[in-house]
Design brief:
The protein is mainly alpha-helical. It is built from 13 helices and four strands. The chain has two domains: 2-318, no CATH class; 332-405. The chain has helices spanning 2-23, 25-66, 70-86, 93-103, 109-141, 146-167, 169-184, 195-207, 209-236, 243-258, 269-279, 285-318, 355-367, and strands at 332-338, 348-352, 374-379, 402-405. The mean pLDDT is 80.
Length: 413
């Protein structure tokens, strides 16, 4: 599968190179340099609050389930989009790292993943009014152009995709069950959860209709604000366009780019879409390709420092400089794993006076009954040997008597 994506990406780059030659490489370079570093800075600065607002949309959807702050969702949205830009060969890389960013803020992966999937559907729904406005404006502005009919077909397909979660409710849940099984390979927390429990979690998210409406309104606003960004980009390049063409260009390019998801980074697809739509308004191919390059430069200007910051924070959080000492003499650290444990499939970290004391703490704080059959027990565990991604970033201090993984348990006296 990876080799196929590489081949498709190379084909996209070939198409991009062909478009650049067709438009005139020199003309494309001149149009791009007309924008200049100041122009790249301006369109980048304008896009930053858009990403922050999109993070708020995610927060509205997931706040009841995740319990995380708006700032945590905003940062997760930045990570999600940035990873998608710098990891083009990973179809789900941006989504996984977005959930991971929430996890590092104390959100359970299942809550982050489910709220994100609902956010993706809501974002697609929010796109429909914007694309419809662009298509209607195009038909009114250029009624006899055959491109409008082709774009109308693309719009109908977009509607079908957006309404699939509603019209194919039964198939949707079967797909979610399959998705949960795939995610469980990355986050063991999913492994012990039945599909019915995942479905109940989705029902809980959809039950807060006021949150869904708020997220939908935010996405609609952000899609329409894309026309403002497009207008400013053309203006800074010395090619002023009126607001209506800006809406048409941005909305229809975003529609055509959606159907290029099979090509990593939509290489060549995005450029071709700009050339087709800009031609409707007499804009030369060189300008269209340069606009596409400027958009990519803007996205990378945000993605690279964001992704580098996330990598730094991840590495710093995952590092354990030294084995911490017990709080007092006579305490030991234990690592337990139990068979068929729905609470914490990863295991439990307990600091206690003895094995029996550790089991008593688990019985009192977690199970409230007899413990399940043990599958693993490590006495005096070195915490540096535990999972660097899922355990260490989410554990409390192992120096006091009590449960230090997972978080959230009271300290026994």
């Amino acid at each position: 599968m990876r080799s196929l994506r590489v081949v498709v990406f190379l084909l996209g780059l070939t198409g991009l190179a062909a478009l650049t030659v067709f438009a005139g490489a020199g003309a494309v370079l001149r149009a791009f340099t007309d924008l200049g570093p100041q122009g790249i800075f301006a369109i980048t600065a304008l896009h930053l609050p858009v990403l922050a607002i999109l993070g708020l949309a995610w927060w509205f959807i997931g706040r009841a389930a995740t319990g995380a702050t708006p700032l945590a969702h905003i940062w997760a949205r930045f990570v999600r989009d940035s990873a998608s830009e710098v990891l083009p060969f990973s179809q789900a890389g941006g989504y996984l790292l977005g959930v991971r960013a929430l996890q590092l803020r104390g959100v359970r992966p299942i809550s982050g993943a489910l709220s994100m999937s609902v956010d993706l559907v809501t974002e697609l729904w929010g796109k429909l009014p914007y694309v419809a406005a662009g298509l209607i404006a195009l038909i009114i502005r250029v009624p006899q152009n055959g491109v409008a009919h082709a774009l109308a077909i693309a719009f109908i397909l977009t509607i079908a995709v957006a309404l699939a979660p509603v019209l194919l409710h039964g198939r949707l849940w079967r797909s979610l069950e399959s998705l949960a099984q795939r995610i469980s390979a990355r986050w063991p927390e999913f492994a012990g959860r039945a599909p019915e429990e995942i479905r109940q979690s989705y029902d809980k998210l959809f039950a807060h209709r006021e949150n869904l409406f708020a997220a939908f309104a935010i996405h609609v606003f952000c899609w329409f604000f894309g026309a403002v960004e497009t207008w400013l980009l053309f203006f800074l390049m010395g090619v002023p366009v009126s607001p209506v063409p800006a809406i048409i260009i941005d909305s229809l390019v975003s529609t055509l780019r959606t159907f290029g998801f099979l090509v990593p980074a939509a290489a060549g697809i995005q450029e071709g879409a700009y050339v087709i739509v800009c031609a409707l308004f007499g804009l030369p191919p060189a300008t269209a390709v340069a606009v596409s390059f400027a958009r990519r430069a803007r996205d990378l200007a945000i993605a690279i420092p964001t992704f580098a910051t996330w990598q730094y924070l991840e590495a710093r959080r995952s590092s354990v400089p030294a084995e911490p000492k017990p709080a007092a003499a006579g305490l030991h650290r234990f690592w337990f794993r139990f068979r068929d444990d729905p609470h914490s499939p990863l295991g439990y970290g307990v600091t206690a006076r003895s094995e029996d004391d550790a089991r008593a703490i688990l019985r009192m704080e977690v199970f409230a009954s007899d413990l399940p059959a043990e599958s693993e027990l490590i006495v005096d565990v070195d915490v540096r040997t535990l999972d660097q991604v899922l355990v260490i970033p989410n554990m409390e201090s192992p120096s006091w008597r009590g449960i230090w993984f997972p978080r959230g348990h009271a300290k026994p006296s």
